[in-house]
Amino acid sequence: MPELPEVERVRLTLTPHLVGRTIKRAMLHRADICESFSRTSAGFKKVRTTPAALLEGDTVETLLRHGKQIAIIGDSGRVLCVHLGMSGQLRWKTEGTEIKATHTHAEWVPAPDLRRPEGRLIFRDPRRFGGLWTFDSLADLREARWNTLGPDALAIRAETLKEGLGKSTRVIKAALLDQTVIAGVGNIYADEALFLSAIRPTRRVNRLTAAEVRRLAAAIPEVLHPSIETGGTTLRDYVDANGEKGKGSERNAVYGRGGLPCLRCGKRLRQAIVGGRTTVWCATCQR
DNA sequence: AGGATAGCCTGCGGGC
DNA sequence: TGCCCGCAGGCTATCC
């Protein structure tokens, strides 16, 4: 469910709970949602997941994000990578918080910390499109997994976007959803960025002008930043680590507004499947 | 080899 | 009030 702003929000709200805490116990309730990798001379091989790989015994140093993926870094150097997929949640559970017990696939119990209230980290994911990946180091995660991702959408520049798009003939909407081109944009913010840059989602990548690519590159962080501030979009079941819902959905100019009037020109917004996903745009404002 | 499509899962809202 | 259908924020495997 989450795109970059929602994932960033989870990272930000989880950080104060986790950083500096030592993981006393890591529990994996469903083995098939986690893959562990270890380095070999040839590359990487899949190994059995151990509690230590899930950061048991580690003190959390920091939380990073690239695109829609989060990395939790332990003081041993080990790294736990979390991808929320469509329905994944990373939650900080305290005495008072109600979290559905169903589909809880992993839990982390920290050692008591006198300065902070007790709590534990929960990974839930009903649809199981998300998952966990463990590596011995951040370098390993970058080499084995994040290497396929394009530049993070918050830091995208016109030149790198142009390079990532290449001479592709597919529609721009599909290219924006391709995480190897740019990491972090999903269905909501692809439509929002295309609206803001006045480009039709059905335009072929290789037919975009340099000026249009520049507008698009500028529009992407511009649509992402406010959603990080407001707590991300809420359409269904997204919540941050503290269970707070986003307040950003009413800010969307096109996503979820098919058939409604364009906020800029008042004409009816078009809705159709583009690049395999429901897409909304204004045929008047976007060319 | 790039690009389009089906498929993986569960939950929920709308229409009957 | 059910029940069935369609649809959902992501990504991949597989075909052409």
Which secondary structure elements does this structure contain, and how are they paired or packed?
Layout (H helix, E strand, L loop, with lengths): L3 H15 L4 E6 L5 E6 L4 E4 L12 E7 L2 E6 L4 E5 L5 E5 L10 E7 L9 E5 L6 E5 L2 H7 L13 H8 L6 H6 L9 H10 L13 H21 L39 E5 L2 E5 L6
Parallel strand pairs: 2-10
Antiparallel strand pairs: 1-8, 2-3, 4-5, 5-6, 6-10, 7-9, 8-9, 11-12
The structure holds a DNA duplex (16 and 16 nucleotides).
Q: Trace the largest sheet across and list its strands.
A: 3-2-10-6-5-4
How many individual β-strands?
12
What's the helix-strand series? HEEEEEEEEEEHHHHHEE
**Helix share bin:** 10-25%
Rounded mean pLDDT is: 95
- End-to-end Cα distance, whole Å, is 29 Å
Counting H and I runs of at least 4 residues, what is the number of helices?
A: 6
Instruction: Give unreliable regions as ranges.
Output: none
Portion in beta strands: 15-25%
Biggest sheet: strands, sense, closure? 6 strands, mixed
| Overall 3D shape | globular
CA-atom Rg in angstroms: 20 Å
> Which structural class should the secondary elements be placed in?
alpha+beta
